[in-house]
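hey so i finally got around to running the thing on that chain from the lab meeting. sorry it took forever, my laptop kept dying and i had to restart like 3 times. anyway pasting the input first so we r on the same page abt which one it is
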Amino acid sequence: IQRPCFDFGAVPRGYGWVFPKDAELSVGLYTLARGLKDVRLRLAQYLAAKGFRWSGDPLASFEAHTIPLGGDRLRDSGLPLYLVGDAAGFADALTGEGIYHALESGRIAGELAVRVARGQASPAEYRSLLERPVLSDTRWSWRLARPFYRAPALALRVLGSSFLWRPLVHGTGNGATFSACLRGGGRLWLESLRQRSVRRSTSAS
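ok and heres what got predicted. didnt touch it at all, straight out
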């Protein structure tokens, strides 16, 4: 496998993935289903379905972890306490990815902590600073993840519409957050078409 692979529906209310690396592969399952039994066995079955072979006990080295979600419900404690990343439940419910929100919330927390120490800000500002770059994303991803994984085949057909995937690809490719792509969908769609037209004109000249 030379390219990243996503198999939606490989596990109930989730997907399987294969990420090629230099000399190895990262393979796993992500699911929103609660109380799912035999997760490791399902991973072994997914590996077999993808054509992978191994020696020894494949379950011996497999690990499963809970991904914290729901950080948009974070409330101000009134204390100089700044939860970031997984500790705050800032993972994306659609993908399970959490690196971006961990880095962004860490940056915001660090900058605010410095300002609080200098007497220039209050810890109570933390949640409002997180709203647009972090909390809005986690809120929208949770709202969309539940219907998406109830009917992934239908959801993928809907996402196949250029009216949806163009703004997402164009926006995220230019550093926009998920919620920003949703808010600016029409504008991003037009920008993507404009850039495509420019590329075609350049290649034809």
